[in-house]
Amino acid sequence: MLPAALRFPLLVVFSLTLSSVFYSLSSAFTAGDLSSVSRSLNDWWEVAGLVGWKATELAVGWWGEYDGTFFLLPYSVGVATRSRDILTHSYPGIDLASLTLLSHYPPLYLLTTFYDIRPTTMLTSLVIDILTTYIPFRLLRPVHPTHHTSPPKGAVANRSIINDFGVRLWTTALAAAIYGVVVYTSFYTWLPVHLVLYFDGLRDISAAHSAALPYLIASSFPIGYAAREFIFTPATGARPDLGDIRAKAFNPETASLRETLWYNVWGFSKRTRTIIQRTATLVAVAGTHTWLQVFVTVEGTEFYGAAGWAGIWSAAAALTGSAYWWVANVDEVSN
Question: What is the pTM of this model?
């Protein structure tokens, strides 16, 4: 058993090493696509910034306890299987894998859409980024008790909702639709001018004028799935905690100033707090990663150009979290 103090540094080294190995092995398939649009990193602070951000992403998952979402699936065990007798499986690292997909997709989508980078190159890079996050977490982080493969009955709330195929499909479609509409609206309003002004080296801007909303929504389904797994599923499965008890026991006539401030600022249900925390994390991580990758690594990109592109995805994440709050709290909107 490794000492706890060594696990996170080893996680960072392991992830960076895997990334270097996988990208080296994939270079024969990508045929220099990424290098053709990449900025030369000649200053130490540029390299240090990228490495530091990678460590920060891993730290978010490590100390945010994103070691696995309780991912519930109906398991067919003969004809005697009943809807309430559902076996459950936990996938350590699915939280951070979903967050990685949501935050690493935007800069790669930019390259594929406007720089003529092949989709296979984008998919290869995305798979590598997800694997180099998932594998180290799977090996080095023990599964949290709440993510155990055989949780006590009642450990996860709303199992029937989480397992319902229709709910899974429509909550995935909801997020995909939000991302698709946000990107489509940007394409047909301010984004083309923004790209011309702040991105020197664009190879093709026609995609911004010819985009079809149904296609954008359909192609966003993997994003919708990841958003559902990162935000909706853990929020819906959240059990009431001490914060819920404190909120219910709050009495404005006898409460202190500190208790009143807490209640007004953070006196939400566990479900709502989970949605707020995870949506804020997604907005911050996706926005920062997109800006950093586009501004630092894509040749000819200006600061405001990268910020504008990152803003699209941060806005989509915020709207998705808001929509999930409404869906998950229809019976407790007042909280």
Answer: 0.85
